[in-house]
Give the backbone structure.
Amino acid sequence: MEYSPKIKQQKIWQVKTPFPALQQILARELGISLITAQLLINRGFYTVEQCRDFFNCGLGRLYHPLLLKDMGTAVRIINQAVQARKKILVYGDYDADGITAAVLLVQVMRHLGGVVEYYIPNRLDDGYGLHIDALMRCKEKGTSLIVTVDCGISALEEAAWARENGLDLIITDHHEPPPVLPQAPAVINPKRPDCGYPFKDLAGVGVALKLAQALLENDGYERQAWHDYLDLCCLGTIADIVPLHGENRILVKHGLSSLANSKRPGIQALIGVSGIKDTIGASEVGFRLVPRLNAAGRIGSPDLAARLLLTDNIGEAWELANELHTGNKIRQEIEAKVMQESLAMLGDQPGTAKEKVIVLASAGWHPGVIGIVAARLLERFYRPVLLISLEGETGKGSARSIPAFNIYGALSQCREYLLKYGGHALAAGFSLPADKIEEFSREINNYAGKVLDDKKMVPRLNLDGLISLNQVSEELVNEIELMQPYGHSNPVPLLGCREALVKTCRGVGRDSAHLKMLLYSEGVTVDGIGFDLGAYAEVLATDESVDLAFVPGINEYNGRRSLQLEVKDVGIPALLELSTQENSKSSSWEEYVTKNVSQNQEELFIPEFILETLNNGHSAEMRPYLYEMKNNQAKPEFIDLRESIDRQDRLRDLAADEIPTVIITACAYQTIEIAYYLQLSFPSLKGKLACCHGLLPEKDLLENAVRFQNGELSILVATPSMARSLNIKAGHAIIYHLPFNRTMFNNVTEMVQTKGSVYLLFGTDDFEKNSSYLAALTPDRDCLALFYTIVRRKINKYGRFILEPGQMVRSLTESGFLHVRKYTVQIAIKVLQELGLLKAEGKEEAIQVCLMPAPGGKRDLHSSQTYFRLHRVREESMAWMMRLLKDPLNNFI
């Protein structure tokens, strides 16, 4: 195939590294496909616990606002100002995040009875952030308290001026704090180094919502009162492109529903003028609503957007919404003109178009849109782009870059030509004298020539994995949809397949801009649609083999649902690049567990304590102990982190220490997932970390123990009895999962050196999981009776029945016994045998059962030794775990 000039530069498909062991673990424990499991891994979710948190998006999982540093002080100061009827000013920012944050706090404080106004600086006249001249005007108007939103964290001079002039200042922000914080009565920012708030990635409006929640609760409102502001929070959070995980995911997921049903006239009007008629998702917010709000700040007054969101008047709301809509159209026209002029300049200056960094300047460009145009040019040419708007003798610039070129670092290298600059790796702003532009362009390209080779200037497409078309199903699509809302750090899942045959292919839509395909592979025929890929219709031949990058979906037409691939790129063939982890060669434990987990061994997923109990309480002591704990031996320090709300983050922080550490889990699979979690979080741990559980070969276990004691390994993740039997001595021990009994707890304690520490990092969630395993260990009379009834119904004319444990588990579960597992079936058989009700023999997956003569009366379950022993084990274990969770730590030391 020859590529048409209309087809963009061919991309390299960068395929994520698969992790088969983790895939198997997540798929089994979460009840999802291996493909969806890999999607979760690709997004940084390596444990069952992380994935459940990701899917469980209840508002109850949000952290309490008082966990934010200075939140209590801020609430007290604002409450005093409200009560005293002092003038309060909310100082915002001109983008959608800052505007929604300002509106949110204004409405809340007015609702509480405050005398509140707002001020939003103009992008062109004022620029970003807090300004002393604005503070002076506030002081002259009698303002007593200023609350910033989405700005202020770097306002050292402004905070000092406010303090010296009797203005109370509360700063709420989410940007990276400088080394020295502003001296204000309250500085609320989750990124403060001394702030223990677990989630660091809130948008500015998210921080404002936390303050609103704290204010409402302090004033006695019901706990759900702050839910009324989720629509505003959703708008601002999506607009600011913060990572859509953790609290942001929860706020947006619930906020989208709140937005669709918002009672605010301004939001209703904004939705109306945006032409949204169906479901409102993150995409509709980001591409339809947010641009209209941002247009006011880019080319006009951001006050228009604030007034729209604040108004209670329906007529005024529609008037303002239409004004914003018109402003957005003007912004698009201005943007299109700048884009057209930029392309014309590149056509007239072919040398500039071939430079590694494109630098263009013009006196006619609006500084409010050059950033957007720079991003569009980058997408077309895939190289850093800097556009400069000239005004007199000065130029204001906006830069966008590719991942391989840190534009902020590049500006730093050229700072002698600049008046000021700021930003980050992919986007930055700057200003410079107009007569320095040519020298600046030459210098930044000289720098790019040293650090940016041609290979890094080929666009890449990140694929979650390569699959076969016969793996695409409606079930897979439904699972993938559970991962919504999509956004930064949670992109739309993108999959690839190799060598699909093109059965038919044609351009559709206006100017045949889109590509309609019928594809065939491995016995499966499926429709495909590629938006803006219509140029491929000119070059693809029927029955040609193509590689596809696609998003699986469902097409609904005239009540008919069918699978459809949204094709994002076509390769004939594709240029593939497999992503690799640093030091990607597998360790011996990784190779073994990958094979072990793929065999889906049941024992991997049963806690070690349960396995030992099933084995009549005898743990597998592999070798004699090399040491014994003496009665007078000093005990390690115990550090109580029970019920930590950020348990996995705490584990990661503790693992970052260089002290030899043993992490104790309950289950074999948990040793594997925690080992991967830490290794993937810290690539530097490659080769310094291993896991130990009872299904590993003894040779590997001994090797891991010796390497740990020799200092070659810094972290060992192990089950309790396994760690004890390996005679390990550690500097620290982290009990990550709740021990089932005191023996397990003591074993961990004894393996820690005298000056070491034992961290208790378990909590109530572990108790619930352990209780479920114990319930499966102890089927009650009703469960046993149903089991016996099912067997009697299934007996054939020869008095026999081939029992399949998996099918029996399903039958019991469907009847309401939700804690049943395969080992429950084995226990039930053993109890009923001991009661003389049946006989059984055969393999684990096919057990031949024979009924004994029917009993004359009710059997005493306690006459079964197995029943009696297991119920006693459960009773003792439950009592111990409740004590270990609730009692003071001194009771156990």
Notes: The chain has five domains: 12-39+464-578, 60-225, 349-458, 588-762, 772-876.
